[in-house]
Amino acid sequence: MLHSKALQAFIAVAEELHFGNAARRLHMSQPPLSQQIRRFEEDVGTPLFVRNTRSVSLTPAGVVLLKKAKQLVSDGQAALVATQRRAAGNSGHLTIGFTSTAAYQLLPKLLAGYHACLPDITFTLKEDLSANLITLLADDRIDLALLRRPAAVSHEALVFTCVSREAMYVAMPHEHPYAQLESIAPQLLHGIPFIGFSADSALYFRERIQSIFTHFQIQPHIVHESVMPTLLSLVEAGMGLALVPESASSLRPVGLRFLPLNDDNKNVAAIDLYCAQRRDDDNPALNAAAAILGRVD
Q1: Where are the domains of the chain?
Q2: Parallel, antiparallel, or unpaired for β 91-98 and 221-226?
Q3: CA 71: distance to chain centroid?
Q4: Which fold would CATH assign to domain 94-297?
Q5: What is the pLDDT of residues 185-234, one digit of tens each?
Q6: What is the mean pLDDT of the chain?
Q7: Would you state the pLDDT for residue 236?
Q8: What is the Cα–Cα distance from 286 to 277, expressed in whole angstroms?
Q9: Per-residue b or e along 203-217, where b marks 16 or more CB atoms closer than 10 Å to that residue's CB
Q10: Buried b vs exposed e over 143-153: b needs ≥16 C-beta within 10 Å?
């Protein structure tokens, strides 16, 4: 087995072609270096140098070994650097799960942040429903999830950090009578045609909207249930109004009008987005996520 110190000694002598110069380069005396090279040749099983009183030269075997030895040392140093960068979280791979609404603002923010400060981190992205992302995360099939957190869904092995809070806005066609207002009083929604969120595909939003209805003691007339962006298409078609995250306005900036819902409490009509990861995950590449995304206390 070729040891690192022996390879370094061989490379020094092979490049200097002078034992005295090589010894000084290695910060050692010449006799131990000569002994080390002789043992190295015995380990290799063939002479590597032609020596005489006036010069040192490489044998054909020595020429071949010098090229391979340099590559081996270079690969070893690269492996060490890569290992240190991985241990520090400066490189590696993350599989990130996200809901469709996280893709509007939070996912781009996370990816841009990693690209700016840790460009050697690579990613696999997976869009899915929040409940499915929780299962994938718990099963170690993704490393991080940007998701909504329905009240009915929890998992002891996971840590949820609220990283975004935004208001719910009322989406409506430009020609709707309410479109001329600056904001919408909750009571104006009572009894009007309304597009709700599907329980199967958007449980969090369905729960939050029902909570808003209950708080303000209103009950719109639900004419259809869907998910975004289809939900916004139904609103644009004039089938009803809808409560959606403020960030969803970027999906239909021209076709619809988005107005804030009056909320004296400021939290009743707010929705949260979480960054979730496994409690026992020690992947150092995850450490930057919290700093990039910030935190809502």
Answers
A1: 4-87, 94-297
A2: unpaired
A3: 33
A4: D-Maltodextrin-Binding Protein; domain 2 (3.40.190)
A5: 999 999 999 999 998 888 889 989 999 999 999 999 999 999 988 999 99
A6: 86
A7: 94
A8: 9
A9: bbbbbbbeebbeebe
A10: bbbbbbbbeee
Instruction: Give the Cα separation of 23 and 7 in Å (integer).
Output: 14
Using CA atoms in the order 166, 168, 171, 174, what is the torsion angle rounded to 10 degrees? Answer: -70
Give residue-wise pLDDT tens across range 85-110. 555 555 578 899 999 888 888 899 89
CATH topology for 4-87 is: Arc Repressor Mutant, subunit A (1.10.10)
Share of the chain above pLDDT 90, in %: 39
How far is residue 69's CA from residue 43's CA, in Å, rounded to a whole number?
14
| pTM exceeds 0.70 | no
- Report the C-alpha gap between 225 and 227 in whole angstroms: 7
Helix (H), strand (E), coil (C) string for the chain: CCCHHHHHHHHHHHHHCCHHHHHHHCCCCHHHHHHHHHHHHHHHCCCCEEECCCCEEECHHHHHHHHHHHHHHHHHHHHHHHHHHHHCCCEEEEEEEECCHHHCCHHHHHHHHHHHHCCEEEEEEEECCHHHHHHHHHCCCCCEEEECCCCCCCCCCEEEEEEEEEEEEEEEECCCHHHHCCCECHHHHCCCEEEEECCCCCHHHHHHHHHHHHHHCCCCEEEEEECCCHHHHHHHCCCCEEEEEHHHHHCCCCCEEEEEECCCCCCCCEEEEEEEEECCCCCHHHHHHHHHHCCCC
First to last CA, the chain: 57
The pLDDT tens digits of the residues spanning 244-293 come to 999 888 877 788 999 999 877 667 888 889 999 998 887 777 878 878 88
The contacts of residue 2 (CB under 8 Å, 6+ apart) are 40, 43, 44, 72
Shortest CA distance to 141 belongs to which of 120, 126, 155? 126
